[in-house]
Specification:
heterodimer; A: mainly alpha; MetI-like fold; flat; B: Rossmann fold; six-stranded mixed beta sheet
Chain lengths: ~290, ~300
């Protein structure tokens, strides 16, 4: 293969050509794999919109549920969802952030810390219906809160705390240690360093984690059914101690009815829920990108 | 005075505070450890820091062995030596930054104006107020220039005019003229040399009397380096400066005293020679010092 008076061969031949072909082929195979998920989602969205889009209207959003499909609406379930998610964030946010800060900044590196971290990882994988059973036993029955918004919020908080802690931990760990060193070298205490430098820097990542956890809670059905939200609510929620229902539960209630019209209602409600969850994820992505550029 | 610019006064009872040459540690304290290097050099000025037989361990690994020296007030002392000889470790022992690393241990005594810095009732936060530090890679906070300088003073309870303090510190760090048009600009938008001077300014704002510098110019270009060296010669009129440097020309240019460290066969850093910079570089007493300075190794 010695090039004497000939120009050096730079075009791919032989084994190089084969390797290149394999590399090109793998690109398409991996692309196809990625598109499978997108294709499934696209099909589901298309199918749902096809079935339910005609049912969407302002009345649909502002009517209470009813035995008559054409009169049934999402009013009470939207309000219920908003109340529950709001209260959930109120409970879960401080506990999750506090836990993450303790783990990353303050905890001595001993067996207790290892136990807590192991515990959190396990809890993040526990099926949501278990949290529902737990919530039923503790909040609904033992604390006698009944199947109320606050019981639902506390139950969902327990469910989303582990995943929020893990996301917040990641965000805090991303803050470079040079910032902490700089602050501590000036005579700041550990808390002053955390509050003034670490948390502000980690906030975008933490917010992303919180928003993703909330959108998970928004779609939660099994846990809330367990605590008793599978009821017919025909009034606006005005207190944390009200009985309630949520959009996913309403969807479930409609899908198990035999009439075709209720299935249309369910499809329309699914569109509403999808738009809400999609918007929340979009907001999370925008926040992440804006702060990353800074 | 409510201002933080009051220097920490030497505490009552320290023999160094009496000025003039202290006669050094008594022989009995040193002879406890058989392999302590005996040094008879002590700077004639009063000592801000007095290290006696200091050894430092990262877990099981020993990083410093039996280091004893006195660091003089209002002078620049350079710590030089090849990589891994423990000079940064030694520097970080002075303001207890090594406390932040788990499983570290220090034996021996580190005295600051006669007080044992590692005594159980001493608060490392208080130590760091009085002994400031500038790091190798400039690390300004992702905030405005004003906030960078004000932060240290604020968390330490400064009650005077913050605006004046910020401007004064920036002027002392030779940065004010370059940034005074917009102090709200982000600290990260400055050049490398400017960022390092910003880090110096924020350390000054806390009102220390000692500034530790860990290879402050190694991440900077030659022009920025010279600016900082000039700044060091100005600052030493008011402060005591201890600088770790890889760059021997820099040590020769900038420092009054130089300490040369070397890792022994177990990897523990030992003080080989300590003296006036001019003598260390023109007429070193130890062969190992001469070898390092002339570039035979390191």
């Amino acid at each position: 293969m010695v090039a004497e008076a000939e120009p050096v061969a730079l075009r791919a031949t032989g084994t190089v050509a084969r390797r290149q072909a394999l590399s090109r082929a793998s690109r398409y195979v991996l692309l196809a794999a990625s598109l499978v998920g997108v294709a499934v989602l696209a099909f589901l969205i298309y199918d749902t919109i096809d079935l339910g889009a005609s049912r969407l209207s302002w009345d649909f959003l502002t009517n209470y549920p009813s035995r008559f499909a054409e009169r049934a609406g999402l009013r009470s379930s939207i309000l219920g969802s908003v109340w529950v998610m709001g209260a959930t964030v109120l409970f879960a946010f401080p506990v999750a952030i506090g836990t993450a800060v303790w783990i990353e900044e303050f905890a001595p590196r001993n067996w207790l810390l290892t136990l807590v971290k192991l515990n959190l990882a396990n809890l993040a994988g526990v099926p949501s219906i278990i949290y529902g059973i737990l919530g039923l036993a503790i909040f609904v029955r033992y604390f006698d809160l009944g199947p109320s918004i606050i019981a639902g919020a506390l139950t969902l908080s327990l469910m989303i705390i582990p995943m929020t802690v893990i996301a917040a931990q990641e965000a805090i760990r991303q803050v470079p240690s040079s910032i902490r060193d700089g602050s501590l070298a000036l005579g700041a205490t550990r808390w002053q360093t955390t509050w003034n430098h670490v948390l502000p820097a980690a906030l975008p990542g933490i917010m992303t984690g919180v928003i993703l956890a909330v959108s998970r809670a928004a779609g939660e059905t099994a846990a809330l059914i367990m605590i008793g939200a599978f009821t017919f609510i025909a009034y606006d929620n005005t207190s944390l101690f009200d009985d309630f229902t949520t959009v996913p539960i309403q969807i479930y209630q409609w899908t198990i009815r035999p009439q075709e019209e209720f299935r249309q209602n369910a499809a329309a409600a699914i569109i509403v829920l999808m738009v809400a969850v999609f918007t929340m994820n979009l907001v999370a992505a925008i926040i992440r990108e804006r702060f990353r550029r800074e | 005075m409510s201002e933080l610019q009051v220097r920490a006064r030497p505490l009552a009872g320290s023999e160094e505070a009496a000025g003039g040459a202290a006669t050094g540690a008594s022989p009995s304290a040193l002879s406890e450890h058989a392999n302590v290097e005996q040094h008879d050099f002590e700077p004639p000025e009063a000592a801000v820091f007095s290290l006696r037989d200091v050894s430092f361990f990262y877990g099981p690994k020993q990083a410093l062995a039996g280091v004893s020296l006195k660091l003089p007030v209002n002078r620049v002392t350079a710590l030089i030596g090849p990589s891994g000889c423990g000079k940064s470790t030694l520097l970080r022992c002075l303001n207890r930054m090594n406390d932040l690393i788990p499983r570290t241990r220090l034996t021996g005594k580190v005295e600051y104006h006669g007080q044992d810095v590692y005594a159980p009732d001493i608060d490392p936060v208080e130590v760091r107020r009085r002994v400031g530090m500038v790091f190798q890679k400039p690390n300004p906070f992702p905030k405005s220039i004003y906030e960078n300088v004000a932060f240290g003073a604020r968390v330490n309870g400064y009650r005077g005019s913050m605006k004046e303090l910020v401007e004064r510190s920036l002027r002392q760090a030779a940065l004010l003229d370059e940034v005074k048009d917009d102090l709200r600009k982000s600290g990260l938008a400055l050049s490398g040399g400017q960022q390092q001077r910003l880090c110096i300014a924020r350390a000054l704002a806390v009102g220390p009397d000692v500034i530790l510098m860990d290879e402050p110019c190694s991440a900077l270009d030659p022009i920025a380096t010279l600016k900082i060296e000039d700044l060091i010669r100005e600052l030493v009129l008011e402060f005591t400066i201890i600088i770790v440097t890889h760059n021997m020309q820099q040590a020769a240019r900038v420092s009054d005293y130089t300490a040369f460290l070397l890792a022994d066969e177990h990897g523990a850093g030992r003080l080989i020679e300590y003296g006036k910079t001019q003598e260390i570089f023109t007429n070193p007493r130890q062969k190992r010092t001469e070898d390092y300075i002339t570039g035979r190794f390191g």
